[in-house]
Amino acid sequence: MTTKNAKVALVGASGYVGEELVRLLLGHPHADLVAATSRQFAGQTLAEIFPRFAHDEKANGLKFSDADPKQLARDAEIIFLALPHGLAAEFAKPLVQAGVRVVDLSADFRVNDAAVYKEFYGHDQVAPELLAESVYGLPEIYRDKIRDAKLVACPGCYPTSILLPMLPLVREKLVGPKNVLVTSLSGVTGAGRKVEADYLFAECNESMRPYGVPKHRHLAEIEQELSIAAGKKITIQFTPHLVPVNRGIISTIYVDVTNKIHIAAIDSVFENGYGSEPFVRLLGKGRLPDTKNVVGTNFIDIACKIDNRTGRLILMSAIDNIVKGASGQAIQCFNLMRGFPETAGLL
Amino acid sequence: MTTKNAKVALVGASGYVGEELVRLLLGHPHADLVAATSRQFAGQTLAEIFPRFAHDEKANGLKFSDADPKQLARDAEIIFLALPHGLAAEFAKPLVQAGVRVVDLSADFRVNDAAVYKEFYGHDQVAPELLAESVYGLPEIYRDKIRDAKLVACPGCYPTSILLPMLPLVREKLVGPKNVLVTSLSGVTGAGRKVEADYLFAECNESMRPYGVPKHRHLAEIEQELSIAAGKKITIQFTPHLVPVNRGIISTIYVDVTNKIHIAAIDSVFENGYGSEPFVRLLGKGRLPDTKNVVGTNFIDIACKIDNRTGRLILMSAIDNIVKGASGQAIQCFNLMRGFPETAGLL
Amino acid sequence: MTTKNAKVALVGASGYVGEELVRLLLGHPHADLVAATSRQFAGQTLAEIFPRFAHDEKANGLKFSDADPKQLARDAEIIFLALPHGLAAEFAKPLVQAGVRVVDLSADFRVNDAAVYKEFYGHDQVAPELLAESVYGLPEIYRDKIRDAKLVACPGCYPTSILLPMLPLVREKLVGPKNVLVTSLSGVTGAGRKVEADYLFAECNESMRPYGVPKHRHLAEIEQELSIAAGKKITIQFTPHLVPVNRGIISTIYVDVTNKIHIAAIDSVFENGYGSEPFVRLLGKGRLPDTKNVVGTNFIDIACKIDNRTGRLILMSAIDNIVKGASGQAIQCFNLMRGFPETAGLL
Amino acid sequence: MTTKNAKVALVGASGYVGEELVRLLLGHPHADLVAATSRQFAGQTLAEIFPRFAHDEKANGLKFSDADPKQLARDAEIIFLALPHGLAAEFAKPLVQAGVRVVDLSADFRVNDAAVYKEFYGHDQVAPELLAESVYGLPEIYRDKIRDAKLVACPGCYPTSILLPMLPLVREKLVGPKNVLVTSLSGVTGAGRKVEADYLFAECNESMRPYGVPKHRHLAEIEQELSIAAGKKITIQFTPHLVPVNRGIISTIYVDVTNKIHIAAIDSVFENGYGSEPFVRLLGKGRLPDTKNVVGTNFIDIACKIDNRTGRLILMSAIDNIVKGASGQAIQCFNLMRGFPETAGLL
Predict the structure, then answer these.
(1) A206 — alpha (psi -120 to 50), left (phi > 0) or beta?
(2) Residue D151: beta bridge partners?
(3) With an 8 Å Cβ cutoff, is A51 touching chain D?
C-alpha cells in the first residue's frame, strides 16, 4: 500500500509545543510540512529560530510566515494549531469551514459544554458551533472517532496523565465516583515559553511549589471525561506543583476502590484495556514511574498499588508533558486521521 | 542573666544532617562544640572534611574522633546523635545512663510503641526502656516537655512538614480523623549522603519519582502524633516523591473538614496556635509555599485553601528538610533544654 | 567603644543584588535600613515582595518608596545604589553633592577613564566629574582608600573573581603582562532578574553556553586594575560561560610565569598578601575550588597549580557572584567606611 | 543494493555509554543486537534494567549475559566494548585474534605510543601488539581507514570536542603549535555511572568545579592527534570543569593565529573541511554553541571568533558527550565499517 504523504501546516510554531511539533513533523515519514506560522519570527527560517534543526534541509528551506487561513487551507490538508486558547477557536473556524482538518492543541475544543468552558477559562468559547464536531484526542479512548474527525481537540498534559490511568477503572466501575484526589508534578515547560519573572531560571531552580490551588483549568476536561466514563458526575481534587525539570509530569492519584478488591483485578483491567496499546507501558510489580524513563518519548508509564491500611488504590503515571501531553499525542491523532501507522514518526 | 555556654558533642557528623549541625553549632552563640565523631574521618579536622568551614578557627582546631561514649559523657553535657536508626539507640543507652542529655536525630525514640517501631523499621527497638523518657522534639507542640527532657527524639523531616499544619486543626476537631491524604515532595538530601546509584546526579537530575509507596516509615510517627492529638486512631495516606533540588520539602495535605466551615475559622485556629511561634510563618491570602523561601532557614511556611467544590481543606507547607526537618529543629530543642533564647543560632 | 549604628538606604532594591543587600542589611548588627526604593514595588513592604523575609519585623515595617534623592540624603548617611549603569551615575550626583556617602554597585564609577567607559558601555559616563573621587571597592587592595571614600564603586562579579587571584602576583612581577587568558563560569543570577526569554528556566537548565565573546564589558575594569598593578598596559583574553546554577562563579586563569618559578614562591606571595584577609581562603595542596563551598558567603576560594609541561600557572577561584561579587563586598566596604569590624554582618 | 544487517554484540552494557549504545542499536535499521554483556545484570533482560526500553520487543527478549569472548566471536561480527581501560584491551585481544572486528570505546587503543599510554594511565598497555592495527575513530579525519579497520579506538569525549574544531586549522598551518589553551565544561555523565560520593546529586547540583588539573588523561590523545596534523609536537593546556547538567560538553579553545588573518580564511578552511560532513554544523555569524542544541544528537556545533584586541582565535564547540563523544561516534564508525549510510540510526 502506498499512502500518499500528508501536507500539513503548523500555526503558532514558536512555543515549546510548536517547536516539538516541528521536530516530530520534520522526522515524520509521511508528513510534509508545507507551512509554519509565527508572527514573531515571520520571514526567518525554522533553522534560524531553532538551532537544534540547523542541519535539516527542510528547516533551512522553510520560512515562518504570517498566518493566513485561506492560504493555509489551500496548501495543507491537516493543520495543527498551537495557539493560546481563544485565539485557537477563532483560527479554527475558517479552516474547518474550508474543509481542512484541524488538530488543535489548545483547550478551546476540549470542553463540550460552553458554559463550563467559560467558568474555567473566563471568557466565551469563540466557536461553540464547532463543539459538536470536535473529538477529544485521546487515542486510547477515542481512536475510532479520531480517525474520521474534522476537528481534534488534543488533551491537556495533566488530563492525559490522569485520564489514562483512571478511565479503564472508572468504566469498569472498580473506582467509585467519590474521593478522587490527584497530586501532579510538572516540569517548567508546562508553563509554555512565557517570558514572565515566575519562570526565570533562578525563580524555578531549587524551588518546588504548588500552584493553581484549588481550581486549575484542566479540571474542566478531566471531570468531563471521568463523568462520561462513569455515567455520572465526578468531581475531583487536583493540585499541580511546579518542579525544576524541563519536562515531565508525575501524577499520583488516590481513589477509593468500590469494594474489597485484589490488585490482580486492577491489573487485569489494565491489561485488557491497554495490553496492546503502543504507547501505554504498564509497569510491573514493584516498579514505580520516573519521568526520566519517558522524557522525549510518547509513552505513558502507569503503576498501581493497593494500600491495605487505608483501602485505597494509588495510581501513578509519568509522561513527557510536551510529547504524550501535547505534540506527540497530536501526531498520534494525525496518524489515525490519515490512516498511517499509529506509531509513525513517534518511535 | 549570664548563662554559661553549653558543651556539646556531635556523634556521626559526616552526613548532611551532621554537617548542618556542625554549621549551626559553629555559629551558635551559646554552644561550645567539644567533640565531633566520625569513624570515616577520624583524625582529620572539620575544616579538612567540610571545605565550607575552612576559614573557621574552631573547625580547624577540632578533629573528628572515634565515638567513645565514656569520653563523650565526660566532656559534653548535651550530645547530638546523627546516626542511622538502630545504632542511635545503642549509642544513646550509655549516654543517658551516664546522665548526659541526648538529642537524637534518628527515628529510634520517635515511636513510643516498640511494636509499631518494629513493624515499620523491621528490627527490634534496641533500647525500649528509654522510650518512656524520650520526648518528641517538636517545640511548637511539646515545648515544656522538651525543656526538661533527658532524651529528645527529633521528628523526621516529612513528619515535621505534615504535623505542624495538621495538629492545631486536629486538636480543635476541625479536621476529621478520616480521609487524610498527603503528597510530599523532597529534595535529594532527604536520602542522606548515601552512596548509591539511585542518588547519583544523572539519576536524579531531570527526574521526578514517587517512592516508598504505600507505607513509608515516617507514617509511624505521623500517625502516632495525629492520633494523640485526635484522641483516637488516625490512619493516613502518604506518598513521598523525589525531586531534583538539594533541599526542601513541600507537603500538600488533603483533609475532610468536619462540617461546613469557613476559612476564617481555620485561620483563627492557626493564629491562636502559631501566632507567636518564632519559626512558623502563616502565609496570608493568596500566598502559596515555595521551598526557595525557606531553604537554609528553620522556618515552616504554611498555607491553606478551602475547596468549595469538594468540601475539602488543602493544607500546604514548605520546610528545609535539613534545617527545620532535622538539624535546625534539633538546635531549637537544644535551646529549650538549656534555657537559651529559642531562636539562638537560628536566625 | 560604642559606635553608633549607621542609617542606610538602598536604591533599586528589586533585583537579585538588591534583595541580597536587603538580606545582609536586615541582619547587620550596625546598620539601620531606613529606606528602600523601587519604582515597581513602591507602597508594598519588603516582606510582601520578598517572602524570605516574611518573619522579619523590619521587613514588615518598611515599605518600598519611590527614589527621592533629597529625601534619601536627609534620612541616610550611606546609600547603596543597585541600579543599571547610566542611571546609577545620574542618581549618585545629587547624593554626593549633598554630602551623603555612596556605595554604587553598577559599573558607572569603576572605570577611571570616561573614554574607556564609553568604548565598553556604549554611552557617555554621565558624571565624569565624580570619577576622581570614586574608589574601586576591592577591600583587599584598596582598604585604606575605601575607609575615607565618598563614593565607592563596587567591582563586578567576574572582576572580583579574577583580580583577587592575579593582583598579588602581578604586583610582585611574578606574572608577565602577556598571555593572560581567563575562562569563567557563572550562575544565572549573574544576568540579574532580567525577564528575557534567554533566562527562562527551560532555556538555561540542561544548557551550557559561552557568551559575550570576545569583548565582555567587565574587561574594562579588569584590565584597568591589572595595568595599574603591573605599571603597564595589560590586555587579557576573557570568555564567560552561562551554567545552570543559581549562584557562583568559577574563574580559571592561565598566566605565563616570568621565569622558572616554584609553586612555593607563588604560595608565599599569596600568604603574604592574603594570609590575614578575613574573606580570602587559600586552598591548600591538592584542593580545587568548588562554588558549593562559597555560595551564600563572602569568601573567595583560591587555588593554584603550576603545569610543568607548559610552563604556565593556573589560578582558579570561586565566589558567590551575588555576595563577594556584589552585595557582600558592598557591605564589606560599608563596614570599612564606617569603622565597623570588616566582617560585621558577613559571617 | 541490499546490504545484510550486521550482527553486533555489546560488552559492558551497564554504564551510560553502554546504555546509549543499546538505545542506538535497538533503533538502528541495519544492526541486529545479538548479545549484551554485564556481570552485574547477567540473567536480566535489557528491558528490566533500562526502563526506557520497556516497550521494546528486542529489549524484552535479550538478556544480559556474562562476557564469553569465544561465544561472542561466534555470534557477532562486530563487537562494541564499553569497558574500563585496561580491561578493554584484555578483552579485545581474543576477539581480534578470532577475526571479529572491534569498536572499543575505552582509551586503550587511542594512544599509539605505549609509553605515553603508561605515563597517562598509570599502567602498561595490555595489548601493545594491537596498536598498529587500531584506527582512531574520528570519522571526519580517518574515514577511509575506519572503513577497513579491524579495531577502532573511539575518541574520548573531550578530544572529540577539541580536535574537530582544531584539526583543519592545524593542518592548514593557520594555527601555530604554541599557546593552545582549552577550557572545557562537561556534564556529570562524563564521569560514567560511578557510584562515588563526588557524583551524588547534592554534591554536583548547584556546584561548578575544575578537576584533573593540570594533566587530564585525555591530553595524551589530544596532543597525539594535533601533533600528527601539525607535523610537529604540540603541547596544550587543558582544564576540564564539572557542571550540573546530565549531558554535554562545551570546549572553548584559544589559539594564536600564525599571522594577521581574517575570519574569512578560517571560515573557508572550515567550509572546505566540513561543508559536507553530516554531523558537523558550522554556526554562522554571531552564533555561539549551546549544549542544549546538540544533546541527544550526534552533531558537533562549531563557532569561531577572532579577537582583534589580542590577536587570538577563539574556537568554541558543543557536543553530547555520550553521543558524538562516545556511543554515537561509535555507531558512525560502525556504519563506515560495514558500508551502511554513515548517518544510519543517527538522525
Answers:
(1) left
(2) D102, D134
(3) yes
Determine contact, residues C234/C224, Cβ cutoff 8 Å: no
Separation of alpha carbons A324 and A298, rounded Å? 4
How many angstroms separate the CA atoms of B310 and C105, rounded? 52
Contacts 24+ apart (CB under 8 A), A257-265: A257/A174, A257/A175, A257/A176, A257/A306, A257/A311, A257/A312, A257/A313, A258/A173, A258/A174, A258/A175, A258/A176, A260/A311, A261/A174, A261/A306, A261/A313, A262/A306, A263/A304, A263/A305, A263/A306, A265/A174
Helix axes A219-230, A157-171, angle to 10 degrees: 10
CB atoms within 10 A of CB D121: 17
- Chain D residue with CA closest to C219: the answer is D309
- The interface predicted TM-score (ipTM) is 0.96
Is B244 in contact with D199 (Cβ distance < 8 A)?
no
CB contact under 8 A, D301 and A206: no
Between C and D, how many CB-CB pairs are < 8 A? 138
Question: Considering only alpha carbons, which residue of chain D is nearest residue C292?
Answer: D207
Q: Which of C157, C204, C304, C333 is catalytic?
A: C157
Least confident of C116-125, C168-177, C276-285: C168-177
What is the SS3 assignment for chain B? Answer: CCCCCEEEEEECCCCHHHHHHHHHHHCCCCEEEEEEECCCCCCCEHHHHCHHHCCCHHHHHCEEECCCHHHHHHHCCEEEECCCCCHHHHHHHHHHHCCCEEEECCCCCCCCCHHHHHHHHCCCCCCHHHCCCEEECCHHHHHHHHHHCCEEECCCHHHHHHHHHHHHHHHCCCECCCCEEEEEEECHHHHCCCCCHHHEHHHHCCCCEECCCCCCCCHHHHHHHHHHHHCCCCCEEEEEEECCCCCCEEEEEEEEECCCCCHHHHHHHHHHHHCCCCCEEECCCCCCCCHHHCCCCCCEEEEEEEECCCCEEEEEEEECCCHHHHHHHHHHHHHHHHCCCCCCCCC
This model's pTM is above 0.90: yes
Asked if residues A321 and A15 have their Cβ atoms less than 8 Å apart, the reply is: no
Q: With an 8 Å Cβ cutoff, are B208 and A290 in contact? A: yes
Active site residue D157: yes
- Quick one: pLDDT at residue D262? 84
Instruction: Answer yes or no: do C293 and B54 touch at CB < 8 A.
Output: yes
Inform me whether the pLDDT recorded for B1 exceeds 70: no
CA pair distance C60, C47, nearest whole angstrom: 5
pLDDT bucket at B2, cuts 50 / 70 / 90: low
Distance of alpha carbon D147 from the chain centroid: 17
Q: pLDDT digit string (tens) for A104-156?
A: 999 999 999 999 999 999 999 999 999 999 999 999 999 999 999 999 999 99
For residues D258-281, give the mean pLDDT. 91
Under DSSP, is residue C120 helix (H, G, I), strand (E, B) or coil?
A: helix
Residue of D nearest to A297 (CA): D52
List the one residue out of A46, A48, A39, A133 whose CA is nearest residue A84. A39
Q: Give the residue-averaged pLDDT of B212-241.
A: 97
| Distances A228 to A183, A221, A224, B196 between C-alpha atoms, Å | 22, 11, 6, 46
Residue (of A344, A300, A332) closest to A103 by Cα position: A332
